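Below sits the subject:
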Amino acid sequence: MLRWQMSLHKYRGNMTIVNKARNIHKNSDGLSRWELPNTPDNPAYVPANSEPQVPIKAINIIDVGTEFFEEVIQSYKQDKNCCILTSPLEKDFKDAALANSLDDIWKSSYYN
């Protein structure tokens, strides 16, 4: 419950969570279980008019469509500087000056 309370804290004042009795709500989950009172003996106690000392940070995972990646690839292909930087990576490009600056163990990997 503490995890849900922390996640939903940023929406405080903008939404109301209503507890439903178990016999009414047949498929109850962690969010719909009976809540603890917001008193000082509750580990998740938050005073009504207090501001959080540390902002709550969360990770949101989203699924980006292939259209986004295609758009990024096209923008790289249209940018002159990106083309200059990525063209050696797109072909079998061996730079002798670069290879000679590497340690011996790295040189063998570079030419393989």
Remarks:
- Residues 66-111 form one domain.
- DSSP finds five helices and no strands in the chain.
- The chain has two domains: 1-58, 66-111.
- The chain has a mean pLDDT of 74.
